[in-house]
Amino acid sequence: MTANLTAETLAAYKRWAPLYPSTAHNPLMRAEQQAMADLWPPVSGRRALDLAGGSGRYSRLLAADKAAQVVALDFCVPMLRQVSGAARVCGNMMQLPFADRVFDVVISGLALGHATNVNAWMAEVARVLNVGGVFLYSDFHPDAARAGLTRSFKDRKNDYCTVPHRCYELDSQREAAAAANLTIEVVHEVRVGMELREPFPKSEEFYRRWHGLAIALVVRARK
Ligand SMILES: C[S@@+](CC[C@H](N)C(=O)[O-])C[C@H]1O[C@@H](n2cnc3c(N)ncnc32)[C@H](O)[C@@H]1O
């Protein structure tokens, strides 16, 4: 079951990769990226990991911020091929191929919902993070998933595809962080009609229906 879901996720991202530039390329990503920027840690001179970095959206920002070293890890090679300005590592975020405490900053955009286990994901991040290091991550909000919203895209043939997603409630994220000796400093919820309010085709109906719904979550934690 877990192996099937991971394979399905990888297949979906291989399909999405050609249409996944290394910038925030839809209204949700722009709102999420702004919330991440508001909580962005000091990066200059630090060793940074872009975890499940995709095509390198956050790797670019880490490099622009003069991180001493940027490593982008993802399990999808067509995503990684688009990354520039970072060392690229093809690997599984559930079993990181790095020694203990080698990063001062770990950034992870919109990837927690692909972790097979939130406790193991948090423990793996805590293991590679130096003492005092910062972990900043975002994800599709569990409330949005519960409301029936999906993570989906249209591929090159204009076919509609949905990416599998696991729902980790905020309480289970807090418990996993505590068990991994990470202290959560800030939790920010990105809400429809508030931070997310950019118009897009048929958006009036979307904003009317989902006004106030938490659609993305941004969390900053420290080891
Ligand atoms: C929604 S994309 C986000 C990409 C990038 N972090 C961003 O914010 O633009 C999720 C990424 O997680 C990667 N991913 C999913 N499961 C993974 C795993 N088990 N190990 C490594 N990467 C994974 C996918 O390949 C994809 O690039």
Shape: globular
Provide the number of structural domains: 1
CATH architecture, please?
3-Layer(aba) Sandwich
Catalogue the ligands.
Answer: S-adenosylmethionine
Number of E-state strands: 9
Q: Alpha-carbon distance between the termini? A: 32 Å
Q: Keywords, please?
A:
223 residues, alpha/beta, Rossmann fold, seven-stranded mixed sheet, two-stranded antiparallel sheet, 8 helices, 9 strands, 26% strand, globular, binds S-adenosylmethionine
Task: Write the topology of this structure.
Blueprint: H1 2-16, H2 27-38, E1 47-51, H3 57-64, E2 69-74, H4 77-80, E3 87-90, E4 103-108, H5 118-128, E5 129-140, H6 142-146, E6 152-154, E7 160-162, H7 170-179, E8 183-191, H8 203-210, E9 214-222
Parallel strand pairs: 1-2, 1-4, 2-3, 4-5
Antiparallel strand pairs: 5-9, 6-7, 8-9
